[in-house]
Design brief:
The complex is a heterodimer of chains A (383) and B (187).
Chain A (H helix, E strand, L loop, with lengths): L5 E6 H12 L1 E6 L6 H13 L3 E4 L3 H13 L3 E6 L1 H6 L1 H9 L4 E9 L5 E5 L4 H6 L8 E3 L4 H18 L2 E7 H5 L1 E6 L62 H16 L2 H4 L2 E4 L6 E5 L3 H14 L4 E6 L1 E3 L3 H10 L2 E6 L5 H9 L4 E6 L8 H12 L1
Parallel strand pairs in A: 2-3, 2-4, 4-5, 5-8, 7-8, 11-12, 11-14, 14-15
Antiparallel strand pairs in A: 1-9, 5-6, 7-13, 10-12
Helix pairs in contact in A: 1-2, 1-7, 3-5, 11-14, 12-13
Chain B lengths: L1 E9 L4 H14 L3 E7 L8 E9 L13 E4 L2 H10 L6 E5 L15 E5 L1 H8 L5 H13 L4 H11 L5 H23 L2
Parallel strand pairs in B: 1-4, 4-5, 5-6
Antiparallel strand pairs in B: 1-3, 2-3
Classes of the chains: A alpha/beta (383), B alpha/beta (187).
Chain lengths: 383, 187
């Protein structure tokens, strides 16, 4: 049974599970790791209750590959991990990208590098989440900043992965994974759930990677056993799914299609929230749990008479240049607080094209920024 | 309205569970709650801290900035966090069975309420429920969580075989908490 409508107090990790079940997830393969363990733990008893399958794998290499297999078996599938496991999953992630396999991967960020700060939060993986696997591809990465958003975005992640036939990464962090907060679960009929599009032509007419018309990038996906011949393979393929070793033109088409199906739909994929930006002179651009601190600081700044506002990025990748440009054209300065050495700030700088001063506010060591630190930065650039 | 509460002790005293129960009781009382915890890689005896923010509106920053209430159950965390936080407006509820040396907070906090929680819990049946005794004292003092919601939260989150003992400790804590309420109101 999926969670009953109403208000539930949950940890972020638990909200992943409940959102996933409502989205139709019926397969999870993973390996426990702090601070994502509670996801596997809850999946282990919740999935069997709804007719799903939970497997504790031998490691993260196996986990993501099992998820790819289950997705090709026709089930909505996911895994969850943290930094060290996310690194191990990068090769499998690339496999999912070239085979256009829908899946959801939750990375609950903790401090790195390597084993790092096991129990403490970080936003150090934002770049790895975009391009951690080798080669050219585009990613969809969502960053929740509350338990409610974890719940909502998990459903959204499944919908996006089915729509674009691409892995979708939920980039949480230790604070959001472990904080307990009320989650409002709406009635099931009010929740949008996207189902996988299967071929509508007989097997002999099915061309696995050829979109129906120009401007379309995604093709329908059969499951194993449906009777369609598809080579699910990691070597570069053409539209027919045939291996191509040196066909430059076909490889060019395939790589560009993998890229365009995400980047050309940036308007549809990008989610963000605006706070007090209308008359703002200073904008804070923030994401994940940092956005909670930033909002507090912006409110404090307003009390002091500083015209501050916030743009919260929910979709990190693809990066929404247009929105950032719009904000940059309107304010005098932008502050970017991140629990890393300054990563998304580079994108903000690039997109804002010198229209506003951009200030990076870094934080490493496993702590959220203190609201006073963000407030001090706002004051500095407001002068 | 924003009430910031810190609960601290060592691993095994049920600090994380206390934070969860407090947050659940808060939500049952129709307030917003955000409850976080900080712990080390060790499973037992390292210092643990739960932070609970209560509000009548959605909570932005989910951590404690300067605590309104601080339930402290071991000497190490009393020493440590008294330096890290501004405690000038803090009501400290301290387990005097575990803490003997109050110099780090004496004269710095708004009020220090010393109560032998672990001894009280032992009298009730087991020292392990000292945490729920403390939650009883605390919730009496913050006044917005009725006892029945605290009891319901315990029923939701505590293992079935320990529910009765935990509720007994919470009720005893509520009684003792009445003295604290008088002290706060008398200030």
């Amino acid at each position: 049974m999926s969670l009953e409508p109403g208000v539930h107090l949950m940890q972020g990790d638990e909200a992943v599970v409940e959102g996933a079940i409502i989205a139709g997830c019926r397969f999870f393969a993973g390996y426990p790791i702090t601070p994502a363990t509670e996801i596997a733990e809850r999946m282990s008893y919740r999935l069997p209750q709804v007719g799903g399958i939970f497997i504790q794998m031998e490691d993260e290499l196996g986990s993501i590959l099992a998820v790819i297999g289950a997705s090709w078996g026709g089930r909505k599938s996911m895994t969850a991990t943290s930094g060290p496991g996310f690194s191990l999953m990068q090769e499998g992630l690339g496999y999912a990208i070239i085979t256009e396999t829908p899946l959801v991967l939750v990375n609950v960020q903790r401090g790195g590098p390597s084993t790092g700060l096991v129990t403490l939060p970080s936003q150090g993986d934002v770049m790895q989440a975009r391009w951690g696997s080798h080669g050219d591809y585009a990613s969809i990465v969502l960053a929740p900043s509350s338990v409610q958003e974890v719940f909502d975005l998990t459903i959204k992640a499944f919908n996006l992965s089915e729509t674009y036939r691409n892995p979708v990464i939920i980039l949480a962090d230790e604070v959001i994974a472990h904080v307990r907060e009320p989650v409002k679960v709406p009635p099931l009929e009010e929740i949008e759930v996207v189902e996988r599009k299967k071929p509508d032509v007989p097997p002999e007419q099915y061309i696995p990677y050829l979109p129906k018309k120009p401007g379309e990038w995604v093709t329908p996906m059969p499951a194993f056993g449906d009777g369609y011949n598809v080579l699910v393979e990691s070597v570069m393929h053409d539209e027919f799914g045939h291996r191509i070793g040196t066909d430059h033109a076909a490889a060019n088409r395939t790589i560009r299609r993998l890229w365009y199906k995400i980047e050309k739909n940036v308007d549809k994929i990008s989610m963000y929230e605006e706070y007090m930006l209308d008359d703002a002179e200073v904008a804070v651009i923030s994401y994940g749990s940092s956005a909670r601190t930033s909002l507090r600081a912006v409110r404090e700044a307003r009390k002091l008479g500083i015209k501050a506002g916030m743009l919260k990025l929910i979709t990190l990748w693809p990066f929404y240049d247009k929105k950032v440009q719009e904000v940059a054209s309107q304010v005098k300065a932008i502050v970017v607080p991140e629990m890393n050495m300054g990563k998304m700030v580079r994108e903000v700088e690039r997109a804002s094209k010198g229209m506003a001063e951009v200030m990076s506010l870094t934080k490493v060591g496993g702590l959220l920024h203190h609201p006073d630190e963000v407030l001090a930065a706002i004051k500095r650039v407001a002068r | 309205m924003r009430i910031e509460i810190m609960l601290s002790g060592f691993g095994g005293q049920g600090i994380v569970l206390s934070g969860a129960v407090l947050a659940q009781a808060t939500v049952l009382s129709n307030y917003f709650a955000a409850s976080t915890y900080t712990y080390g890689p060790e499973a037992r005896l390292g210092s643990t801290r739960s932070e609970v923010v209560i509000s009548d509106e959605e909570i932005d920053y989910p951590k404690v900035i300067s605590p309104d209430f601080w339930v402290v159950m071991n000497q190490d965390s009393l020493n440590r966090f008294s330096k890290r936080y501004d405690i000038s407006k803090t009501v400290i509820i301290a387990d005097s069975s575990m803490i003997k040396y109050f110099d780090p907070v004496e004269g710095k906090a708004r009020l220090i309420f010393k109560v032998p929680a672990t001894d009280e819990a032992e009298k009730l049946g087991h020292r392990i429920v000292a945490n729920m005794f403390m939650l009883g004292v605390l919730t009496e003092a913050i006044e917005i969580i009725p006892l029945e919601n605290l009891e319901e939260a315990i029923r939701m989150l505590v293992k079935p075989q320990f529910i009765d003992l935990n509720i007994k400790a919470a009720r005893r804590g509520r009684e003792v908490g009445k003295e604290l309420v008088k002290l706060i109101k008398g200030m």
